[in-house]
Amino acid sequence: MYKRLFSFLLLLPAGFLFPAQQTQKPPEKPAQTEYKIPPEAVKQPNPVKPSPASIAQGKKIYGYDCAMCHGANGDGKGDLAVDMKLNLADLRDPASLKDRTDGELFYVIKNGKGKMTAEGDRAKPDDLWNLVNFIRSLANNEPGTKPKADKQ
Hints:
By secondary structure, this protein is an all-alpha fold. The protein has helices spanning 2-11, 14-17, 39-42, 52-65, 67-70, 79-83, 94-97, 102-111, 125-138. It is globular and about 100 Å long.
């Protein structure tokens, strides 16, 4: 009887009795895709003129939705940004938005970017354009246009 059992054990593959310890591969991180704004959004003109009323309305929305990260004055050092250790642009600096059109700003506000949540359909398009006008006013850029390059 022992001979049969011993013969049987010799015929079994070693992996059956002593399975190799299986190691799990860590899950692969998805490749980060480049954030692209559609060309039609880049070219979209701001239909809301940058009036004092528009800027005031944009400031109101900014206070509710943006200041917690971008700072009350646009310095990029809001409480939530500091807590999350985010490095946000200083919107008061004309260089921070110099290569961005109003259409691009509108698109990012509406759709979000990175850790910035999307405004989506919570606000009317005109309110988002007012917000763009306010953001431009932080750097004393003329809303509705790309800021001019600094002259040296």
